[in-house]
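User: tokens in, sequence out, please.
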């Protein structure tokens, strides 16, 4: 796999689906659309490709087998829906190429944390209180399905918990696809479960199947400090960064407060690249307009 760096990712899939009019107030979140309206997912991927993304992330973040079967889907149907997430990304790329775009593009198969399946905000806390065996069974099911698709690599993302990361690392030693692992962090040095990011990165620095390490779904003000921690301990692996907008969701008013300015985000991109980032994009509340500004910034 010959990737030209820096590699520009997409932004948040859920916020683009909501902008398109989709209701994601559901335990499956954006993975709900794999069943109810897959065309909306294709359109969201296309929006990011047209904005300049060279790597799109599948709608499988919340799509664990158990998440589907808990809601009444059969196991075979759950497997088909998870595989469909890659097929929809492939369809978006196919349509994008018909528009005359021939650059090399990649599909990252999203593997969200156990906390996302719980749908109670646990991916922002970690410390699930479950066994290694429970985490291994949970993750292995989805990874086995995505391994058989034409996705280029896994995006094991928003990981808040060192126990979970160690379980994932063991599973990934047995896959043919390579992976990046990105952590969700509460400050410039710690994962959300309180573990030092330096400890997690050092643990993964010689992993044979993890080609990049980084941070996602973390507030922008912490990113520069986290990059420095990553660079000090990665052992030469690529650095991947895709923060959220830093806006805060207020449950009482059901609104986001704060301002996500695409120009300001693009300026921060320049700072992060100067610190040594190889793969860059956005997470929650970062949309195609941000990615377009980031592409302009990369071109300058």
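Assistant: Sequence out:
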């Amino acid at each position: 796999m010959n990737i030209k760096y820096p590699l520009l990712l997409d932004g948040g899939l859920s916020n683009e689906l909501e902008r398109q009019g989709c209701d994601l107030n559901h335990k499956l979140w954006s993975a709900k659309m794999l069943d109810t309206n897959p065309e909306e997912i294709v359109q969201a991927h296309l929006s990011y490709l047209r904005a300049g993304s060279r790597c799109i992330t599948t709608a499988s973040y919340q799509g664990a087998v158990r998440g589907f079967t808990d809601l009444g889907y059969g196991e075979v149907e759950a497997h088909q829906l998870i595989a469909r997430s890659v097929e929809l990304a492939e369809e978006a790329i196919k349509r994008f190429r018909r528009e005359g775009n021939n650059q090399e593009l990649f599909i990252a198969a999203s593997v969200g944390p156990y906390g996302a399946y719980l749908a109670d905000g646990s991916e922002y806390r970690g410390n699930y209180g479950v066994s290694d065996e429970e985490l291994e069974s949970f993750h292995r099911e989805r990874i086995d399905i995505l391994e058989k698709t034409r996705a280029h690599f896994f995006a094991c993302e928003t990981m808040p918990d060192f126990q979970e990361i160690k379980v994932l690392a063991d599973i990934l030693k047995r896959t043919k696809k390579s992976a990046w692992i990105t952590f969700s962090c509460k400050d410039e040095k710690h994962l959300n479960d309180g573990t030092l990011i330096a400890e997690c990165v050092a643990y993964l620095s010689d992993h044979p199947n993890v080609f990049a390490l980084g941070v996602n779904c973390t507030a922008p003000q912490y990113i520069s400090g986290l990059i420095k921690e990553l660079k000090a301990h990665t052992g030469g692996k690529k650095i991947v960064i895709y923060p959220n907008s830093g806006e805060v969701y207020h449950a009482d008013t059901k609104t986001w407060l704060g301002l996500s300015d695409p120009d300001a985000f693009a300026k921060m991109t320049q700072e992060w690249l100067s610190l040594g980032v190889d793969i860059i994009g956005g997470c929650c509340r970062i949309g195609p307009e941000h990615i377009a500004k980031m592409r302009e910034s990369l071109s300058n």
